[in-house]
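Work Package 3 (structural annotation) set out to generate three-dimensional models for the target panel prioritized at the project kickoff. During this period the team completed the workflow that converts sequence records into discrete structure tokens, so that structures can be stored uniformly alongside our sequence database. As a representative example, we reproduce one entry of 129 residues exactly as it appears in the project archive.
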Amino acid sequence: MVLVNQYRHGLKKTILELPSGALEVEDISPLAAAKRELLEETGYTSNNFIETGILSPNPANHTNLTHSFLATDIKLVANLKLNVTEEINVVLLPIEKLIENIDNGILLQTLHISSLFFALKKLGKVQFY
């Protein structure tokens, strides 16, 4: 999996996350934003993006939605293209290692945990009992 280490001011520490971001004016769709963010933050791209789910981060008082995508058959094609305030390091991690360490707090961002669940389900890696 392609992940990013990124400083988060709220926690005042660098944490491991899924590549992600917000819809920008130039993005014509959530898919376009996902493709752009993956390329900017990691240098990777793919011809195969699958929307895996849509989440409401806080439906009690917010209207925004989070669109989750899974990119398969990724390729490194560019250098990072970061905003002036971003400091990101790309981390490649086998999916099994990520799952193995999920209970140890390897991912702290709740929307990323939910997006990971969607991806694992799509990949057939979630076991139902």
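The chain is about 25% helix and 30% strand.
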